[in-house]
Amino acid sequence: MEGQRQTMMGNQAITQGALEAGVRVAAGYPGTPSSEIIQNLAGAADEHGLYVEWSINEKVSLEVAAAASLAGLRSLCAMKQNGVNVASDFLLHLAGSGIRAGMVLVHCDDPGALSSVNEGESRHFARMLELPLLEPSDFQEAKDMTKWAFELSEEISNVVMLRSVTRLSHASGGVVPGTIPQAQGKAHFDHHGTLLDKGHGPVSSSPVVYKHRLQQEKLKRAVELFEDSPFNSYTGPEAPELLVITSSICNLYVKEALALLDASGRVGVLKLGTTWPLPPKLLQHNLGRCGQVLVVEEVIPFLEENVKIAAAEMAGEIGAKRFFGKRDGTIPAQGELNPDIVLGALADILNLPYQARPPEYDLLAQEAAPQATQDRDLAFCPGCPHRASFWSLKGALALDARDGFICGDIGCYSLAMRPTGYGMLKTLLAMGSGAGMASGFGQLGRFGMDQPVMAVSGDSTFYHAVIPALINAVHQKSPMSLVVLDNSGTAMTGFQPHPGTEANALGQPVPPVDIEAICRSLGAEVTVCDPFDLEATQAAALALLADQSTAKVLILRQLCALSPQRKGTKPYDVQVDPEKCLGDQCGCNRLCTRVFGCPGLAWEKQSGKARIDEVICAGCGVCASVCPQGAIIKSERA
Q: How would you classify residue 204: left for phi > 0, otherwise alpha for psi between -120 and 50, otherwise beta?
């Protein structure tokens, strides 16, 4: 409710700020930790008159948002750090051409790679493309700064980048919401002026040198506004022993560490919300406070290096400084930070004794851990069709016996690089790169390579980035096989719709774009199987491996066990016949629990038998096809 403090997740606070700014159009591609921003805006679309979409990829989502801005409507685009790489081609041009109505690019980084295959930085795009960068440090600021970002965007007629991180996007805190204005204004793209008329002419980054100079002038205007920004603040003594410069969620880590050390009287903290370009007057005033500076940030030393450049330029006024941070190893340059890491750095610099916890605690924790937790690797969910798919692909490659391998891709099925997926993925890089690399491997027969190659892709990833790679493979006659693991939604990030589903982000019916039809239209041979049918799937995979003359596609289609359509339903009742289960005496060496590894299967040490955990079993029945003794029995539910 307006004016009353309430608890919001960081992404929800960003959504609230956008609504208070009068956003009209929002687009994105799902990617943790950013996904909830578009989901929340889609949920508010009817009430506030918005258009919201999940686009086919991040580049297209940025283009959709840019179109709205050029037609006079405030717009937002959201993505994770990897998505900025995908969108950067268009973003480079848009930064040069400029925008009209306020436009904000929210990019959510994932330090520690908690939900990613890398912890790549997106901040450097702001410096490279000469766009202003904002970084909220708490939940209220996430809301307020998002709203201000639209105003800043219109002030400088350019995109503004707003960066969040996982611990801000997915944590929760107090936020006081403001007024959400009524939707107003008609979309109209004015294109009748000259090329140099930024408000009424055609949109382009040409003439390049003139537009580049104009872009840099816009950036200088942003710096002027940053000097007095309420999102930059200093706390601490006038002449501290140490100045900490920090931003984003790291500001909360610094606060907690200083409180635990009781060192607030010795340390000053300059919290920056406007991290590129740095405001030089503000920086000079605060760097002049003392001779020692610690920079605390995630992940790479982006802020640290920019501060050092500024300090070198103003050395005549502020004198020499000693810097601590990632460059000298005081703070690690990889992984997430936390209060303990920051506390350790501060204690070392200030020569303060501190023990995070007594050694006795660690000993007790180690003793209790085996009793309190079950040792289990990351695993596919019970009833996941990907487990069945990789089981069949593993068998097919083994029977083929030519040392074939699978190039992987981004999605839930990335787990197939781990034991839970039988270690089947041998490459795992960017979205779409599995098919692209398989296309390349397929051309190496002329150099003596005789290993068959497969690629796997999810359905959402297929639309996002695999289609160009498949076109290339077909056109170049590359002997590779593409296996599309179609579970009918963007399962990894929360079942957001994609071009293959029958409803869009607003819940409206839309025509699905059929993967099989796309592949056939390109000239690829296509086979469709249910991965839960292990025999048919393995036979289809073997047929693909046997004939590697051209690019072929195998679509393994089965709903995700957690999808809205299947959640809470079980196709089969599954149980273990204890009379048939031979346990350790079976020649399978506990194939069901040790190798197949579905969490719905449990091993009882006392009885020496396998059993079904009925609480988490999804009832797919695949394990009944795995047991060589026929001890696992499935029966259709009435």
A: beta
